[in-house]
Amino acid sequence: MEKPFDFLLKNGTLIDGSGSIPVLADVAILGEVIAGVGQLEGASANEVIDISGKVICPGFIDSHTHDDHAVIKSPQCESKITQGVTTVIVGNCGLSLAPVRLDREPPDPLNLLGDQKDFSFPDFGSYVERIDEVRPAVNVAALVGHTSLRVNHMASLDRTATEAETAGMRAELRSCLEQGAIGLSSGLAYGTAIEASTEEVIELALEVKESGGIYATHLRNEFDQVIEAMEESVEIGHAADIPVVISHLKCAGPDNWGRSQDLLDFIDHSPYRDRLHMDCYPYAAGSSTLDLKQVDERVKILITWSDQHPELCPVYLHELAAQWGISQLEAAKRLQPAGAVYFSISEEDMLKIISHPKTMIGSDGLPNDPHPHPRLWGTFPRVLAEISREKKLISLTEAVRKMTGLPAANFRLSQRGLVQCGYFADLVIFDEQDVTDTSTFENPVAAADGIEMVFVNGALACADKALTGVRRGRYVGKQP
Question: CA-CA distance, 436 to 447, in Å (whole number)?
Answer without folding.
Answer: 9
